[in-house]
Amino acid sequence: xNDGHNNSSQEGTTRRDVLLGAGTVAAAxxxxxxxSNAAETAQATATPQPIPPADKxxxxxxxxxxxxxxxxxxxxxxxxxxLCMHGWPQNHRExxxxxxxxxxxxxxxxxxxxxxxxSDKPFDGYEPETIARDMMELVDVENVQKFHxxxxxxxxxxxxxxxxLASDRALSLSTIETPFFGLSFPGYVDPRxxxxxxxxxxxxxxxxxxxxxxxxxxxxxFFRDFAYNPAxxxxxxxxxxVMQMRQPGNLRASLNHYGYIPQMAAQTAELTKxxxxxxxxxxxxSSSFGSHCIDSxxxxxxxxxxxxxxxxxxxxxxxxPQFIRDELEKFWGSIK
Length: 336
Hints:
CATH topology: Rossmann fold
Radius of gyration: 19 Å
Oligomer: single chain
CATH architecture: 3-Layer(aba) Sandwich
Strand order of the largest sheet: 1-2-4-3-5-6-7-8
Order of helices and strands: HHEEEHEHEHEHHHHHHHEHEHH
Structural class: alpha/beta
Number of domains: 1
Number of helices: 15
Helix content: 40-55%
CATH superfamily: Alpha/Beta hydrolase fold, catalytic domain
Shape: globular
C-alpha cells in the first residue's frame, strides 16, 4: 500500500475545502511560488533551541512489539493504571502536566502511537480498532488487567474503540478536545466541515508539499491557531515537536491518522450503534471544539459528564492544567 491511499477528495470534504485550507496555511507560512528553497528558508527562520529543563518525574522509556509494530512508550508512577493516547502532532510528552501531578497516586503508560516519534511508522493500520488492539497488547505487556483511558485529539476515536473492545477492563474513558466522526444525533456537525486542517491533512500529498522543509513555520502556526493562549506550548516542547516532524517518515506516517478519517467514521458509527457502558468524561475548549465533545460523549455513552472549558483552546493540558487536573481527579476518584 502506498502512503497516498487516501489522497483523493474524501466524503464530507470538498476539493474547495482542501484548497482553501491549504491556501490559508500557505499564506500564514509565507509560501510563495519562486521563493528561495524551503531548506534555506527554514534555516534562516529557525529559532535557537533552548536547553530543556529536567522533567519533574523520572520517565522510564521502553519499547515493545505489539500487533505487528514496535511501540516506544514511557511508564511512571504507582497505583491504578492510566493509559494515555496522544493526538497530532504531539507524543507521550503532552501528558507530562498530568503525569507530574498524579504520579504519586496513579501509574501512567504513555505510548507514542503508531506513526509518531520513536514508534514504528507503517504505511497502514491506522483504523481506530487496529490502534485499540495495539493498546490492548501494550497493557498486556505491562501485565495490567484494569485501566483508565485518557486521550486527546485524534487519540480520542481509537480510545473510544478501545473502551468498546475492552469494556470489561476499561475503568473509565476521558476524551479531551476530541473530534468525533461518524455520529448521528440532533445538532451533530461532522468536524470536517468547520475545521480547515482536517480536510487539508486528509490530502496527505498536498500537506507534505506545503510542510516538508517548513516544519517549524507550520507547527508554530498550528499551535497558535488552535490555542486561546498563543504561547501555551512551551518553547522547548515546540522544538521537540519540530525535531520529531523532521524525522524520516514521521510526517507521512502521522498524517495517516487523518487519511484514515473515513474508516474512523465508519468504525465509530458501527461501534456506537450500541451504547458504551464505560463511564465517559469529555471536555472541549471554548475556542476549539467546544460543546461538540460533551454532546458527542452523551450520544456515545450511557454515563457521560464534562462540558466546555472557558478561555481555552485545543491544548488543554498546557492551557488549563489545573482545571483539567481537578476534573480528572474528581472523575477518577468517583470510579469504584
